[in-house]
Write a structure and sequence with these properties.
May be involved in recombinational repair of damaged DNA. Belongs to the RecN family. This is DNA repair protein RecN. It holds the Pfam family SMC_N. Strand 9 and strand 10 form a beta hairpin. This protein is an alpha/beta fold and 550 residues long. The protein has a 6-stranded antiparallel sheet. It has a 6-stranded mixed sheet with strand order 8-12-13-3-14-15. Among the domains are: 191 residues, P-loop containing nucleotide triphosphate hydrolases (Rossmann fold); 161 residues, no CATH class. Helix content is 56%, strand content 19%.
Length: 550
């Protein structure tokens, strides 16, 4: 329930602060006194969008703050999921800055309007004549029946299953589209893969092939060079090896005379050993190298194949070709994998369809049982509200399609008068009848679910005094287990309130202001008398006002 409301710099309100209690409260005031302003300020707290026209003084910010007692609303999960501090007495504040920007806070934590609107759905339900048309909406009609049918747990389970079912259906569609695409490319991908596989590519192979090709292609020149090198090394008179041996023998004579000479001797000896090893390797290579036209041709063929693949796939390395080969392999294999995945998803979809059908049928059965209970209660309430012949015919049609709240389609038929045919509620019910039906619906729902604070905004417009009295009794009875407000012009309803607030205008410093005050017992008598007789209060009006209050 809302426990207090403070408003600063909003429309005609300069500064206002009011406290509320539980039970049934009424708000009265002349047309244009500011009742709509009050609702507008409350709407901002509940997450409606704002603009600079809301500011009374365009130089200062507007602040609207409401305190709510939410201990019995089971809202801790909402606060946890939105990372907010939970308090039994939760404070919502809305600020509109002169720049036009708006800020919202829940327990001093900044929030966006979506979060604020979501929370407000659990806090206050505002109903005006215009909103009675919502009764014609299928979603509202289902909500009414499901409250009576205690269906919300089943629908919650159904919604969870339906979300996963839709995800699987979407996944199945994507997989099938991918399979179609892959199948179109399958033959070409298979050809490309087989071409790469037949090439038997290996990482680093290109450098080795190019090196072998150079050796095989220049075998005569290499052989000639090796032979010449061996000749220069081994010539008996001028060969490098012979000359190194002579230098070694010469240096050996003085190596023992100093460390410096000995080091030179050792270095030359090492050089001789290394050169001797080079000579042996030159000799070995010279003996093993020979012309092999067949090997040269095979090497050239492999190189040309790799170069062709480079050009075809627009790459520069064998490693890149191997990556493409792996990708093609995955694409070719993915057909079988995709087909297997599609079968698996189809099986899961069947399982979810079975579960959804079980839940939807349970919801349907509960609704069927609830319909006579709801129609009887509606008829009873409406009879007390001056519609003794009102009848409802609520039809449910179980379909094959999975909707958001089950598989039912609903038709709300209504007949206001005895002997008249049933017709669609939105077509045959008048505005006054819709107002009374809405009140009856809310009264019934208050018996089956924990409704938030409800505000009836002139829902009694166009009804007679006797019917207004019955409507007031219904709202008063509703207030035994919830907080109820009624904005009214009728004294019969105003007199039933536990608390009576009056909205009125005053002029200060040539400025018009709207104010709200809680009336005392004597002030209530005067207010109701004025509602009965106008600005000139008669003695009979005072007596009548006291009778209504008593």
């Amino acid at each position: 329930m809302i426990t207090s409301l403070s408003i600063e710099n909003f429309a005609l309100i300069e500064k206002l602060s009011v406290k509320f209690t539980d039970g049934f409260s009424v708000i009265t005031g002349e047309t244009g006194a500011g009742k709509s302003i009050l609702l507008g300020a409350l709407g901002l707290v509940l997450g409606k969008r704002a603009d600079l026209t809301s500011l009374k003084n365009k130089e200062e910010k507007c602040i609207i703050e409401a305190h709510f007692q939410i201990k019995n609303y089971n809202l801790k999960s909402f606060f946890v999921s939105n990372d907010l501090d939970y308090e039994d007495e939760t404070i919502i504040r809305r600020e509109i800055l002169p720049s036009g920007k708006s800020r919202a806070f829940i327990n001093d934590t900044p929030v966006n309007l979506n979060e604020l609107q979501e929370l407000s759905n659990y806090l206050i339900d505002i109903h005006s004549q215009h909103q009675t048309q919502e009764l014609s909406d299928d979603a509202v009609q289902f909500q009414i029946i499901d409250s009576v049918a205690s269906n919300f747990d089943f629908i919650s389970q159904y919604s969870i299953q339906l979300k996963e079912y839709k995800r699987l259906k979407s996944d199945l569609k994507s997989k099938k589209e991918l399979l179609t695409s892959v199948l179109k490319e399958q033959d070409y991908n298979t050809f490309l893969l087989e071409e790469l596989l037949s090439a038997q590519l290996k990482s680093g192979e290109l450098e080795e092939l190019e090196s072998n090709f150079e050796k095989l292609n220049n075998v005569e020149f290499i052989k000639e060079t090796l032979v010449k090198s061996l000749a220069l090394a081994n010539d008996e008179q001028f060969g490098v090896l012979q000359n190194l041996k002579e230098v070694k023998a010469t240096l050996q004579k003085i190596a023992g005379l100093s460390t410096e000479y000995n080091l030179l001797f050792e270095r030359l000896n090492s050089t001789l050993i290394e050169f001797d090893d080079i000579e042996k390797e030159l000799n070995q290579l010279s003996e093993t190298i020979f012309s092999d036209p067949e090997a040269l041709d095979l090497t050239n063929q492999k190189l040309q194949l790799i170069y062709t693949l480079f050009k075809k796939h627009q790459v520069n390395t064998v490693d890149e070709l191997l990556i493409i080969q792996n990708e093609l392999d995955n694409k070719v294999v993915s057909v079988t994998t995709l087909e297997s995945e599609i079968v698996e998803i189809e099986n899961q979809i069947i399982q979810f369809e079975n579960q959804l059908n079980i839940l939807a049928n349970q919801v349907h059965d509960n609704r069927k049982k609830a319909i006579p209970v709801l129609t009887d209660k509606l008829a009873s309430f409406l009879s007390n509200l001056g519609m003794p012949s009102a009848r409802f015919n609520i039809q449910l049609d179980l379909k094959e399609e999975f909707y958001n709240n089950g598989k039912d389609e609903i038709i709300f038929l209504f007949s206001a008068n005895k002997g008249s045919d049933f017709g669609l509620l939105k077509k045959v019910a008048s505005g006054g009848e819709m107002s009374r039906i809405m009140l009856a619906v809310k009264a019934i729902l208050s018996q089956f679910s924990n409704l938030p604070t409800i505000i009836f905004d002139e829902i009694d417009t166009g009804v007679s005094g006797e019917i207004a009295h019955k409507m007031a009794e219904i709202m008063k009875n509703m207030s035994s287990n919830m907080q109820v407000f009624a904005i009214t012009h009728l004294p019969q309803i105003a007199s039933k309130g536990k608390d009576h607030f009056k909205v009125f205008k005053v002029i200060k410093d040539n400025q018009t202001h709207s104010e709200l005050k809680l009336l005392s017992d004597d002030e209530r008598i005067i207010e109701i008398a004025q509602m009965l007789s106008g600005s000139v209060i008669s003695d009979s009006a005072l007596i009548h006002a006291k009778e209504l209050l008593n």
